[in-house]
Amino acid sequence: MIRLAPVYYTGDMARTGDFLAALGFAVEAEHRKGGWAELAAPSALLCLHTAPGDSGMAGGGTELSFESDEDPDAVAERLTGAGFPDAVVLDENFGRILRVTGPDGTPVQINFSDRSLYRTP
Prior knowledge:
The chain is 17% helix and 45% strand. The protein is an alpha+beta fold.
């Protein structure tokens, strides 16, 4: 299964979380060390991420991202076979991710989260 999970980068996790809560989002899961949370609404999932200081995204940049329960190496192989040779799987604090450049040059991320690294409210 794959689902859309855009990543919203912020310089203030608490304030942005309060804003999203006022819109109807509730924390579904968050990383134990902070800096990452998944917020759900009845028809949406939004990932909230602390913006790295040098990324230029502290002002609310957004990245196209998906969440998947497939084997990331198999997905990378499928993308490479489809003509996207820069598909790479990386290990992160929350699990593994696949980063690839889409056909129009846009970076795309697919998260393969290890739920044992999260806490749930």
